Amino acid sequence: MSVPLEHDYIGLSDASSLERSSESSNISSDNVTNNVFNLKATELSLGLPGFGKISEENATKFGPVIKNYMSGAKRGFSDVNFNGSEKWGLKGGSEADLCKGIDGVFEKNQTQQLISSSDVKPVEVEKKGPVSENGSVPPSAKAQVVGWPPIRSFRKNTMATNLSKNHTDVAEGSLGAGGCLYVKVSMDGAPYLRKIDLKIYHNYAELSKALEKMFSCFTIGQCTSNGIKGQGLTESKLKNLLHGSECVLTYEDKDGDWMLVGDVPWKMFIDSCKRLRIMKGSEAIGLAPRSMEKCKNRN
Amino acid sequence: MAYSFPEEVLEHVFSFLASQKDRNAVSLVCKTWYEMERWCRKRIFVGNCYAVNPRIMIRRFPEVKSVELKGKPHFADFNLVPEGWGGCVYPWIVEIARGYPWLEEIRLKRMVVTDESLELISKSFKNFKVLILSSCEGFSTDGLAAIAANCRNLRVLDLRECEVEELSGHWLSHFPDSFTSLESLNMACLSYEVSFSALERLVSRSSNLKTLRLNRNVPIEKLSILLQRAPQLVDFGTGAYSSEIRSDTYSSLAEAFSGCKKLKSLSGFWDVVPAYLPAVYSVCSQLTSLNLSYATTQSPDLSKILGQCHNLQRLVVLDYIEDTGLDTVAMSCKDLRELVVFPSDPFVADANVLLTEQGLVSVSEGCSKLQSVLYFCRQMSNSALISISKNRPNLTCFRCCILEPRAPDYLTFEPLDVGFGSIVENCKQLTRLSMSGLLTDRVFEYIGTHAKKLDMLSIAFAGDSDLGLHHVLSGCESLRKLEIRDCPFGDKALLANTSKLETMRSLWMSSCSVSFGACKLLGQKMPRLNVEVIDERENLDSIAEDAHVEKVYIYRTVSGQRPDMPDFVRTMGKDNHEVYNLS
């Protein structure tokens, strides 16, 4: 059994791990090649993705070595070619042959050599989180893994409200104590809804960007909260709003009223937002000019 | 064979067979028995709504009174299945409305239920009695209003952790004044206030009411009124259990509880104020089920209650209970069968409470009837797991979630293979297992070797290679549901065990190393498996064969491809004309 690798929280192993494991498989690489080639007799080809750690030197028949994978959101893909059913010999051979062959592969003494440890997948981090390009996570916050720990949304949302009541000192912009808060997002005319976790974002701009990605046509039709400088809508943006895509973002608050997103401070917004709705078309007209008025008054 | 039993006699004998498994076995004996059994089967359970279509079901079983369906895969509970994947019940309701006009019961789990479906249910079945929706979504309070208004013989309306679009609280008022048959009402998942006077009148005229689970919005001051109207209650869920302490509220509540001589199950307790907890002391010794998992109370207050619950069989609680509270449980609740401990603050790195593996070891020592465990904790050790397995070889369900993925044995820093291996080796009746922590292929070898009765297995962030998956698929004879996330399992094990997959209900794999090509091959080779690739990247059709799929959901079916797939789902390896064989 090989030494467990060190992982940072989201499970990325560092680049040197691949070299380390290649080393250990190289020790018995001759055995590897021999055992691997013997399987030809059962008509199984080994042109399969993810088949152990075959070092570069022996990779001639089997394609280049499995690529290292680094970044958080996307997994690395094996470069080994998969040419479909012919290589499996499934058309000719029976399933008994197939199993025999596989059992041959999986015989204990072979596996130590063939399959060395570090094929560890990086944990799928939420794609919309504050993760920088190279996959690192700001040290203060704990990266949230989608669907982990396995707790149902109903309980998560209930506990989130409990916790926000208990924590008097909620740090700005931290993922901290609140857990997550999934709300539904509907867009008029879209065939189905989406869900987003509001706790991932820190301000309206981040939310807007994320929603923009999710739904193609979209504009936030209001000013941002007081106190955040430099993020108010410019004159030109407001003009675009009026003459442009006519999308308005609204939310349903705890009282069941539909409100325009952006009027209240961010923290207050996520405490009271129950769901989001992107209004389009004729319903949206008439809301935008109001916000323009508000902006004018504030500025 | 000269003669056989008269049909009437056989039919009478069959009527004693409740379990679907037994009835399935009986129907395979001979054609006569098949025919007889199918005419007298009254309850149907469909574990995967896409495994069969309603017309097949109705054609074979014409006299059904109760239908139970499950939709989305289990991991949908944790947001791993994208919205819009499927599981819509409407097509089933349409067919059932036509085929079973005398249907009495519908139970749905993880399905998308629209208001349209609820309205159709409310108008189609004259003798409709039981509606249980568990983890369902897609409907609003308008749908509930339709049920309330039209189902004259309704006995059970049970909404378990559903996501309901709440337009108002008026739905409850739609129950007509002449409606008196209600036996069970669970509206705990709703948040809007319902009219209290309507609720009070409903409770008063429902003399058969046994279960009443209120929502958060019913204030504590009103509870005593309801309990006085329904002292026959067996199962009661409070609303928010908090307000400023008032002695008259407290005393009337305590008195009301003491009047409920039949009360066996308590739940609710949102926003609990500890000073009100003693009001339930008078019923503690009667309780067989107690759910305090929304009560943010500390251990001492919990211990005071639990110390009196000598007949408790089921306990659901937050980790506020701590090891000391679980010691109390181990000493006082000798009849305990099921323990569930949820985390209070799972996203904080450091422990906020003193709950460790010791609490579970303690309960396993003290509670000899313990069968089912769901335990969230921050640390675990092989020695603790071994102790638990030796203390409780009668465990049937063991789910242990260590909050940090891939956490090793905190004492030795080794993987937890030996510990979980011990669980499967000693607990020979184990039917359900969920593992966590640092696990290598070795644990799967143990599972494949020992877990012969295992029916459902959940794996996350575990294993080293396809060998792990191969051990499970080739060794676990009784396995029907397997769900895997973030494990380095790829094509080999899958393709080496294709016939196993047809003996299972379903296999879920997400963030693993399964390739598109393998999925296609599997789908082509196995016509009675739907290999659904769920992938939200763009251009699904132009992704390379050796690229890894995001998620794959493989399930057996006699119904072909389903016709309601969204664009991020593909059934691999099937020709287009094989869609949804309705005949």
UniProtKB/TrEMBL annotation, chain A:
<dbReference type="GO" id="GO:0005634">
    <property type="term" value="C:nucleus"/>
</dbReference>
<feature type="domain" description="PB1">
    <location>
        <begin position="180"/>
        <end position="281"/>
    </location>
</feature>
<dbReference type="GO" id="GO:0009734">
    <property type="term" value="P:auxin-activated signaling pathway"/>
</dbReference>
<keyword id="KW-0927">Auxin signaling pathway</keyword>
<keyword id="KW-0805">Transcription regulation</keyword>
<keyword id="KW-0539">Nucleus</keyword>
<dbReference type="InterPro" id="IPR033389">
    <property type="entry name" value="AUX/IAA_dom"/>
</dbReference>
<keyword id="KW-0804">Transcription</keyword>
<dbReference type="Pfam" id="PF02309">
    <property type="entry name" value="AUX_IAA"/>
</dbReference>
<comment type="subunit">
    <text>Homodimers and heterodimers.</text>
</comment>
<comment type="similarity">
    <text>Belongs to the Aux/IAA family.</text>
</comment>
<comment type="function">
    <text>Aux/IAA proteins are short-lived transcriptional factors that function as repressors of early auxin response genes at low auxin concentrations.</text>
</comment>
<keyword id="KW-0678">Repressor</keyword>
<dbReference type="GO" id="GO:0006355">
    <property type="term" value="P:regulation of DNA-templated transcription"/>
</dbReference>
<dbReference type="InterPro" id="IPR003311">
    <property type="entry name" value="AUX_IAA"/>
</dbReference>
<protein>
    <recommendedName>
        <fullName>Auxin-responsive protein</fullName>
    </recommendedName>
</protein>
<dbReference type="InterPro" id="IPR053793">
    <property type="entry name" value="PB1-like"/>
</dbReference>
TrEMBL record, chain B:
<dbReference type="InterPro" id="IPR001810">
    <property type="entry name" value="F-box_dom"/>
</dbReference>
<dbReference type="GO" id="GO:0010011">
    <property type="term" value="F:auxin binding"/>
</dbReference>
<dbReference type="Pfam" id="PF18791">
    <property type="entry name" value="Transp_inhibit"/>
</dbReference>
<comment type="pathway">
    <text>Protein modification; protein ubiquitination.</text>
</comment>
<keyword id="KW-0539">Nucleus</keyword>
<dbReference type="GO" id="GO:0005634">
    <property type="term" value="C:nucleus"/>
</dbReference>
<feature type="domain" description="F-box">
    <location>
        <begin position="5"/>
        <end position="46"/>
    </location>
</feature>
<dbReference type="GO" id="GO:0009734">
    <property type="term" value="P:auxin-activated signaling pathway"/>
</dbReference>
<dbReference type="GO" id="GO:0010152">
    <property type="term" value="P:pollen maturation"/>
</dbReference>
<dbReference type="GO" id="GO:0019005">
    <property type="term" value="C:SCF ubiquitin ligase complex"/>
</dbReference>
<dbReference type="InterPro" id="IPR006553">
    <property type="entry name" value="Leu-rich_rpt_Cys-con_subtyp"/>
</dbReference>
<dbReference type="GO" id="GO:0031146">
    <property type="term" value="P:SCF-dependent proteasomal ubiquitin-dependent protein catabolic process"/>
</dbReference>
<keyword id="KW-0217">Developmental protein</keyword>
<dbReference type="InterPro" id="IPR032675">
    <property type="entry name" value="LRR_dom_sf"/>
</dbReference>
<dbReference type="InterPro" id="IPR041567">
    <property type="entry name" value="COI1_F-box"/>
</dbReference>
<dbReference type="InterPro" id="IPR041101">
    <property type="entry name" value="Transp_inhibit"/>
</dbReference>
<dbReference type="Pfam" id="PF18511">
    <property type="entry name" value="F-box_5"/>
</dbReference>
<protein>
    <recommendedName>
        <fullName>F-box domain-containing protein</fullName>
    </recommendedName>
</protein>
<dbReference type="InterPro" id="IPR036047">
    <property type="entry name" value="F-box-like_dom_sf"/>
</dbReference>
<keyword id="KW-0927">Auxin signaling pathway</keyword>
<keyword id="KW-0833">Ubl conjugation pathway</keyword>
